[in-house]
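Reagents: none. Just compute today. CPBP family intramembrane metalloprotease.
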Amino acid sequence: MDPELTAPNRFGRLIERRDDRDFPYYNGEPMTVATWKWLLIIVACVLGFLVLILVPSSDEITGLIPRILFPAIPLTLFIVFTGKHWSAIFRRLTGRDWLTMVVFWLLNLAVTSLVGILVAALFGANANTAADGLADAGGAEILAFFVGTGIQLFGEEIFTLLPFLAVMYLFYSKAKLSRKTSIILAWLITAVWFGAAHLPTYGWNVAQALLVIGTARLVLTLAFIRTKNIAVSTGAHILNDWSTFGFVILTSAAMTAA
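Predicted 3D structure written out:
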């Protein structure tokens, strides 16, 4: 077994499973992605994000275009640079993986609800208006919304976890830090990165974006750290946001009917 996978180099069972899965690319397995390539991949993540927030759309159906481009831009470059090894961030989903999605969805709801209450009391909070007005929209619009947000949430995982792997590689292979330290630093840095990207969504409320959304990102990234599978963190993320959006739509529809 790779010495980096031995117990002293891994986190406890609550964080990392005791299996032969490890993060790809940081230690030359299954390949090394050069520093300049990682930097271009991060630039591509930023470009995809700019397309998402700057390309105008008149409705949820036309909004599918920027939502698709959001993950497609960085993922395409990532595939170009990694070739046949691009799929190392994906794993075949097992029953345990599906259960892990649900566990991290519920954990995320619990943790972010608590943090959200504290932040709102101290700094105020702005609502996410993504689902506003959908209760009165047609079925096609609602379907396009959920399909589009599903794609966008996958894009948010790409936007976070490719930089996570890049930062981990830089700290481990270049700065010669330990595996554990590299993971922790990448985990924290990309949580701030993800939270900062949500500043426009929450009216530039720094505390809400960095503390509430950043905390949510810490939980979701833990799903990837545990499983080494972007499909699991994406699933937990979709369950979290779709349940929230669905609640808003149903509540709004009920109030309108009343």
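Residues 139-174 form the longest helix (36 residues).
Action item: order primers for follow-up constructs.
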